[in-house]
Amino acid sequence: MSRLNTNRLALAYGSRRIVEELNLSVPDGKITALVGSNGSGKSTILKAMARILSPLSGGVYLDGKEIHRQPTKEVAKQLAILPQNPTSPEGLTVQELVSFGRYPHQKGFGSLKAEDHRMVEWALEATGMYGFADRPVDQLSGGQRQRAWIAMALAQGTEVLLLDEPTTFLDMAHQIEVMMLLEKLNRDQRRTIIMVVHDLNHAARYAQHLVALKKGTVLYEGDPTEVMTPEMLRVVFGIDADVIPDPRTGTPMCLPYGLAADASTTESGNLPAGQENAERAPEPAYAAG
């Protein structure tokens, strides 16, 4: 079953098309990881799913309704987006940041109601950030800061979370910290999570559904044990690699040992001049707007 899907979706930056005729269904109650080389369309697709980027044609559907035709606040009550490298005003506390997640539920500029405060406290507890509520966000470690932003997304009270490279620029310990939090949210609350991930082993270990993209097209899709193969790694990433079971989890683990002789890993040719890093550019977070 899928509440969120695309139908013949076409996306572009300027006059250059990035995605064509994309039909993608996100399984409910699972973690889905979008993987692919730089410029393959991962973040572009995520932005369309979050209403940040409007389609050229086709559409993104949530519960059968085209989200780009629905009011922003109505969509934001159903799905939350955490963009890559979000930034907050200097001095903003964790509790203030998390409170922003209640914006879709406010009327005008009304103050927070009892239910809003309850959701903020719950989000802080769920992410292990309650003890940091009064700490300025800019004084947190990388992992703590990312958990604070995830808490803001949780405070929206949505069943669907979209995250664009949630572990970028984090050290190894903080990467695992964030991935284990997402795993817990999915396991305990059945949150549907869609995330763009660069680390293939993280994707295979923490996601139950893997989507491998190249040039805006889904080439492989399914359970990580079926998708993470030497063939996929050669075709999608242009690398030769062994795939072995993780000794602890049994999930597939990628061990690259060289570049594939017949594959190119450079995908930036899909993007117009000046847009080679468009998918990686940081942007402020907001609620599915």
Automatic annotation (TrEMBL):
SUPFAM superfamilies (alphabetical): P-loop containing nucleoside triphosphate hydrolases
GO cellular component, one term: plasma membrane
ABC transporter domain sequence ranges: 4-240
Region (Disordered): 265-289
Membrane topology: Peripheral membrane protein
Classification via InterPro entries: AAA+_ATPase, ABC_transporter-like_ATP-bd, ABC_transporter-like_CS, P-loop_NTPase, Siderophore_ABC-ATPase
GO molecular function: ATP binding; ATP hydrolysis activity
Domain of life: Bacteria
Location(s) in or outside the cell: Cell membrane
Protein name: ABC transporter ATP-binding protein
Lineage of the organism: Bacteria, Bacillati, Bacillota, Bacilli, Bacillales
